[in-house]
Specification:
Layout lengths: L2 H5 L16 H17 L4 E5 L6 H10 L7 E6 L2 H7 L7 E5 L12 E5 L7 H12 L7 E7 L5 E8 L2 E9 L16 H4 L7 H15 L8 H12 L9 H4 L3 E5 H4 L5
Parallel strand pairs: 1-2, 1-4, 2-3, 4-5
Antiparallel strand pairs: 5-6, 6-7, 7-8
Helix pairs in contact: 2-3, 7-8
Protein name: Class I SAM-dependent methyltransferase
GO molecular function: methyltransferase activity
Organism: Streptomyces aquilus
Length: 265
């Protein structure tokens, strides 16, 4: 095997679609639930994997994480060399851009890898291998956050994984734009999107969420936030919701991965 073959980035080029503030909901959640781990790390490194045709998401990730972990550094990683070259002028203290893929070409193990809208073009059968490859690069206590959102970041679903495997699934939305919770189905990550069919847990979850949302209709007079919170309270009777009202108020709900994992895994 040649040296070039050993260092070739792992993965394929994505469409590269990106917009400012597209990942704000994911970033906000990461800062809230993983900020303590970032602060505890001696030299915390976070990776924005597959940031796309423009560097906005990496720039924003640095700013948002530094509100909770002032020493954090961000490395934007892209498999398309031209995108890396275009991002170089945006480098600053704490922010650099590197050519690479799922091998995560950074010198030290990152405390965080965020991979948003990266796996949509892959086959479902490839997801577990990609997850395992990235998890193997994490620092002890590190977190991989992988998911999908719409073009302007109003609807987002992501999976959080530690070195041991998948932990949780988070659904996040701009509540004013939501007709029913199952609207989020189109943003399920690749590991789940093809499992939204009868007999699969994620389908049952979204069905029950819609029912709880309908039952909470009287709370709509107090606003979409109150209706969402009431629906989540009802939902947790039958589903392992792992967060609380502080996150629900943000238009989020997080459920244990085991409850939504595809059948046969």
């Amino acid at each position: 095997m040649t040296s070039r073959a050993r260092t070739r980035p792992v993965g394929t080029v994505t469409r590269g679609t990106t917009n400012p503030n597209r990942l704000r909901r994911m970033d906000r959640w990461i800062a809230a639930v993983h900020g303590a781990e970032l602060r505890r790390a001696g030299d915390p490194v976070a990776v924005d994997l597959g940031y796309g045709a423009a560097p906005w998401t990496a720039v924003e990730l640095l700013a948002r994480l530094r509100t909770v972990a002032p020493r954090v550094r961000v490395v934007g990683v892209e498999i398309e060399p031209a995108r890396v070259a275009a991002a170089k002028p945006y480098e600053r203290e704490g922010l650099v851009f590197r050519h690479g893929g799922f091998e995560i070409p950074v010198a030290q193990r990152p405390v965080l890898v965020r991979a948003a809208n990266v796996l949509r073009q892959y086959d479902e059968g490839e997801v577990a291998e990609v997850w395992a490859r990235i998890r193997a690069r994490l620092a002890p206590g590190g977190l991989l956050v992988e998911g999908t959102c719409d073009e302007v970041g109003r609807r987002h679903v992501w999976v959080a994984l530690g070195v041991e495997g998948a932990r949780t699934v988070t659904f996040a939305t701009r509540l004013g734009s939501l007709e029913r919770p199952s609207d989020l189905a189109e943003r399920l990550p690749k590991a789940l999107i093809h499992r939204n069919v009868p007999g699969e847990p994620v389908h049952a979850f979204l069905r029950d969420f819609d029912r709880a949302w309908a039952a909470a209709a009287p709370y709509a007079s107090y606003g979409a936030r109150q209706r969402w919170m009431r629906a989540v309270r009802e939902l947790r009777t039958d589903w392992p919701v792992v967060d609380g009202p502080a996150r629900w108020r943000q238009g989020e709900v997080t459920v244990a991965w085991e409850a939504l994992a595809p059948r046969g895994r």
